Amino acid sequence: MHFSSLVISGLTAIVCATGLVQAAPVEVNKRASKGLYGITYTARTSAGQCQTYEEVLATIQRFNKNGVMNIRTYSQECGQLPNIVKAIEATNSQMTVMAAAWIGGSDDQTEINTLLTNVKNVQNKKIIKSIMIGNEAMFSNYVSADTLVGYINQVKKQVQGIPVGTVDTPNTFPSNLIAACDTIGVNIHPYFGGVNVNQAGSNLMSQYNAFKGKASNKDIFITETGWPSAGNSDGSAVPGTSGLQSYVEQLTSSVTIPYYFFESIDSNWKPAGANGVENHWGLVDASGKSKIPSVYQ
């Protein structure tokens, strides 16, 4: 996905988090009954414009109504963190946010400074689950591992009790970065593995368990997983709303690890990408209509 200067891939990625204090155990069951554990959110409309606060509030209220208690973000664009926190407080919800700074190799310090200011302005720090510095910054060759570790350490020195980390793909996530982490998250998309949707939930767990061997002493989150509603097939993986519904039902009924569903709304402003699916991962379409109203209103 492309966010002006930032690109968020639909490919497998991981998130690591390190904090000044030992991170609390992963809260696997922090979700409302039958709701998705979490969701990825950009605070942008389907066409790519920044959402107003009123639009953010409506989105947060919709998440809350559907039992989605945890939100993952990617940057500080659109004034999103202050708006999301304000909306959560207005909704009187116990939602949490993975705050983030986009690392793209230029203006990184400005982005980090904005993040730090916004986090420090949050009165109820329980809302901030963790802070993620960068998304696939190494996979995209934006920065080196040493540079990224430096950014993480910089942020750790200025926040108290909040895990701090980064996002990258499993194959480009070096051991020194893992060693710095208290918490690790991995984005897993069974669709890109050519998996039939009927096996998507079990495939997700298999990939998760395989990755645990790389960081067995860490708490691990799945920070992206989803199913496209349109586009071309990838092996046995067939896009469609029936597949989307099936995967959501598998996640809410049998997946017991914490995950963030990709994504809240179709991103029509993105390039079509591999198999022409990049515009079609939303739970709702460009008009805001749910694609699967029997499980997400």
UniProtKB/TrEMBL annotation:
This chain belongs to the protein called: glucan endo-1,3-beta-D-glucosidase
Leader sequence segment: 1-23
Arranged from A to Z, the UniProt key words for this protein are: Carbohydrate metabolism, Cell membrane, Cell wall, Cell wall biogenesis/degradation, Glycoprotein, Glycosidase, Hydrolase, Membrane, Polysaccharide degradation, Secreted, Signal
**The UniProt record lists the keyword Cell membrane:** yes
Report the top EC class in one word: hydrolase
| GO CC aspect terms | cell surface; extracellular region; fungal-type cell wall; plasma membrane
Native organism: Hesseltinella vesiculosa
Membrane topology (UniProt): Single-pass type II membrane protein
Entry EC number(s):
3.2.1.39
Homology family: Belongs to the glycosyl hydrolase 17 family.
